[in-house]
TrEMBL record:
Keyword Ribosomal protein in annotation: yes
GO molecular function, one term: structural constituent of ribosome
Example of a GO cellular component annotation carried by this entry: cytoplasm
Record's keyword terms, sorted: Ribonucleoprotein, Ribosomal protein
GO biological process: translation
Recorded superkingdom: Bacteria
UniProt name for this protein: 30S ribosomal protein S16
Pfam families linked to this entry: Ribosomal_S16
Length: 42
């Protein structure tokens, strides 16, 4: 299983909020993840 560190998008329209997660490379952007590493609120 290949892992990637990626940003999972949350929040509402035009007000993004991202969670930095470790997920399987084949899973969708906002799908299942293994661990939450942090967050980013631009």
């Amino acid at each position: 299983m290949a892992l990637k560190i990626r940003l999972a998008r949350g929040g509402s329209k035009k007000r993004p909020y991202y969670q930095i997660v470790v997920a399987d490379a084949r899973s969708p952007r906002d799908g299942r993840f293994l661990e939450k590493v942090g967050s980013w609120n631009p």
